Amino acid sequence: MPPLPRTESPARKSTRALITVAQLINNYSKSTAEWRDRMTISKAKYLCDIAHLGRDPPYPASGTNGKWDNGGQRRSNKFKPGFSVGVFSSGGCLDTLAAIRAGFTPVWGTEICERKRAMWRDLTRTRDLGSTWDVNWQDQVVPDMVISGTPCIDFSSSGCCMGEYGKTGWMFSEQAKPILLLSPNSFCIEMVANCLKVNGGRAFKSLITQLETQYVIKHEVIRTMEHGDSSNRTRVFIVGLHKRLGDEAHSFVFPIGDAPPTPARAVAIPDNLVEEKYWRYYETPVITQDPPVHPGWLHKICQLRAGMGHSSWPHSIYSWDGSWNTQTTHNGGGMRPPLEWKKGELLWKTRLTTPIEAVRIGSLPDSYLPWVKQFDSDDKFLFECVNMGVPICTASAIYENITECLVRAEIPPSTPLPKELRVAPGSNFKDERWDQEETEWPQWATETAAARRAADSHSRAKGMDPHHGQNTASPQVVPRSPMGHPLMAP
Questions:
Q1: Which residues contact 264 (CB under 8 A, 6 or more apart)?
Q2: Is the N-terminal amide bond of 2 cis, ω within 30° of 0?
Q3: Are 419 and 427 in contact (CB under 8 A)?
Q4: Which has fewest Cβ within 10 Å: 296, 380, 388, 478?
Q5: pTM here?
Q6: Do 87 and 231 fall within a single domain?
Q7: Per the domain annotation, does 374 fall within a domain?
Q8: Is residue 277 part of a domain?
């Protein structure tokens, strides 16, 4: 008689399934950590310095413990010319780090917070111009791409929803003016998706109408979770390519969001590492629910009271099996039970998002946390820097697609950069390591917005394409500026 088939008890099968899930989460945590830490803050600075100098700078790359890679000799030149970017409202530099990751080199930024201005200068070694609205853009160098993300509180569903009538909401549609003055080859604008609904989407429509005079516009509402980031954040992105790029101006497509869903526990730290100030305790146990889990979406197990609640004690409690809630600038939006908590158990305490978890939710390297602490040691400043920005996976994917469009349009690289673009006159960020390289800086004249319009107007008057600088009857090669546009004699 053949032996009976061996069966597995439900308890054993359930335990094996839990082990498999734990292994998958552990593997995913390792892979995402590797991706985040491929672009450390030190490496980002190093790449900016390479672009400024046009070759390897006279100091070791990050990760070499202060030593040269090849026995004290200079490293081989790994510089590859690339495109330049300017950033409105640079904030915590998330957009900037994503742009560097996508191959862009920062040329200038704008910001009104002095601590964040210092962060920009330390990261990029370039000028911070102050308020976007106080700059004479006629005299500023034109980058290949402009990134902008104006304050969203007046358009947020958790805010006043006054839109363009709010304290900062007017900036959303007004940012078209400096972009049109600069006339870069491309731009990317980000805003909360609720701007499509506030006041009937009037500010959004006004912005698009203005920009369409020079650009081919594409816009899309994107869930950052679908592009590899860990939060439930949804944003509308507006990308424009200048019409002078010809057919390639119509070629941009948004990246396809096919990343596997990320459970919140994949970036969580153990309960014993959570500081006491991030725990919230209850006199009576919290009554929890057990709704179905949908991977990639929020999994709410309790609503303490109606509404969102104050950031110090949010009203929503989520499990670790769904995604992270959208992080607010004050670290509100939601709490979670201890990692060791299991459904059916009494819930006596919950935890807020910790600083390192906020950094990882934004797909930032762990080195971002100590870097920000150099400028302000308060955790509130860190949460503000991280949560006001766009998570890195989503942003870098969009910027990479813009890069591909510029390459197909045969836009010449605009780096290395002229020395004048590094830091503002009188800045205390001059570094002695550059002194020995003074004679090796390229002697280029920067192209300003006014110079670009003059060159374009002159090209049109001669019947030439203002971008390619060619007459359709007799093609010719035209000298180009460092920013990739014709330099023609009058």
A1: 230, 318, 319, 320, 321, 322, 323, 324, 336
A2: no
A3: no
A4: 380
A5: 0.81
A6: yes
A7: no
A8: yes
At 146 the three-state DSSP class reads strand
Residues paired with 218 in a beta bridge? 239
What CATH number corresponds to the domain at position 174?
A: 3.40.50.150
User: Is residue 8 domain-resident?
Assistant: no
Query: Residue 80: is its pLDDT beyond 50?
Result: yes
The residue out of 410, 429, 446 marking a domain boundary is 446
10 Å Cβ neighbour count for 155? Answer: 29
Single-letter code of the amino acid located at 207: L
Helix (H) or strand (E) holding 424: none
279 plus 217 within the same structural domain: no
Report the mean per-residue pLDDT for the chain: 80
Tell me whether the omega of the peptide bond preceding residue 490 falls within 30 degrees of 0, making it cis. no
Banded model confidence at residue 9, pLDDT cuts 50, 70, 90: low
Query: Does one domain contain both 114 and 150?
Result: yes
As a 3-state breakdown, the chain gives helix, strand, coil percent values, each rounded to 5, of 35, 15, 45
Distance (Å, whole) CA 179 – CA 143: 11
Please answer whether residues 435 and 463 qualify as being in contact, where contact means their C-beta atoms are separated by less than 8 angstroms. Answer: no
With respect to residue 186, please indicate whether it lies within any of the assigned structural domains: yes
With CA atoms as reference, report the closest residue to 394 among 289, 210, 239, 166: 239
Q: Which domain holds residue 282?
A: 270-353
Q: At what angle do helices 94-101 and 392-408 cross, to 10 degrees?
A: 50
Measure the CA–CA gap between 207 and 203, rounded to whole angstroms: 6
Please report, as a single letter, which amino acid is at residue 10. P
Q: Residue 471 corresponds to which tokens in the numbers above? A: 């007459």
Report how many domains make up the chain: 2
Among 308, 337, 353, the domain-final residue is 353
3-state SS class at 187: strand
Name the amino acid, one letter, at 297. W
**Displacement of CA 457 from its chain's centroid (Å):** 35
* pLDDT at residue 486, rounded to an integer: 41
Q: Read off the pLDDT of residues 40-62 as tens digits, 9 standing for 90 and up.
A: 999 999 888 877 766 555 555 54
Q: Are 283 and 267 contacting, i.e. CB atoms less than 8 angstroms apart?
A: no
124 and 186 co-located in one domain: yes
